[in-house]
Amino acid sequence: MKVVETRSMEAAKANGLWAAMTEEDKAVLGRRAVLSHLPKDDILLRRGEAVDRVFLPIDSDISNVIHLADGMLSMASNVGREGVTGLAAFMADEPIGWDLLVAVGGSALAIPTQAFRERMDASPHLHRLLLSLTHYNQIEAAQNAVCNTVHSVTARVVRWLLMTQDRTGRHEFDLKQEDLAQLLGAQRTTINSVIRALSDSKAVQSRRGRLRILNRDALIRQTCECYEAIGSTRWRRAH
């Protein structure tokens, strides 16, 4: 980690929450912010731990996951450049209720919780932004639950790919098919079949643990209504 420099603050504009803050909010928080590289598969916080830092992703994607007793995990929602990690636990001042898993490695601003809370208490604008983002996160979690119940694995895979592109601003990222199977709660063989079909249609290219989106429009035609309902760009457009 290193202290955020001017060029890093420019990069921070890619985060929707940061971009929506006032200049005063940015100046105060910028003095405490640290630019961090988040390696893929790192666990930033484990269920039951206190939220000591919040992360504002710049080009990384962080999954809120629940680990089950049998070793399986389930993804509840994701946070990318539209928002901030651990928001519900931060707002409630409670231990986090899930693990924060780095699904796509990249950069993020890390800010100590105490500094973030002090600024929220002093800034009605930031407080309103965080309440709005909390509401958006609840919508996403509810829509995810419906999607995982009623929509096909193909539609869910495509939605995950589209939203990951939205959240990271990247069209290529490290992604093992077994990781995607775990995150979506699907059989690896099913995920393999879906990715193979998408590759055959030239919508994506999957090679040696990396996936590249080749034809976004083709993916949009195969996704479900949930992508539009919880598209991560929606909150960014509203602010």
UniProtKB/TrEMBL annotation:
Keywords of this entry: DNA-binding, Transcription, Transcription regulation
GO biological processes: regulation of DNA-templated transcription
InterPro entries with a match to the protein in the record: cNMP-bd_dom_sf, HTH_CRP, RmlC-like_jellyroll, WH-like_DNA-bd_sf, WH_DNA-bd_sf
Listed transmembrane segments: none
Domain (HTH crp-type) ranges: 151-217
SUPFAM superfamilies: cAMP-binding domain-like, Winged helix' DNA-binding domain
MF terms (GO), sorted A to Z: DNA binding
PROSITE patterns assigned: HTH_CRP_2 (PS51063)
Protein name per the record: Crp/Fnr family transcriptional regulator
Source organism (scientific name): Brevundimonas intermedia
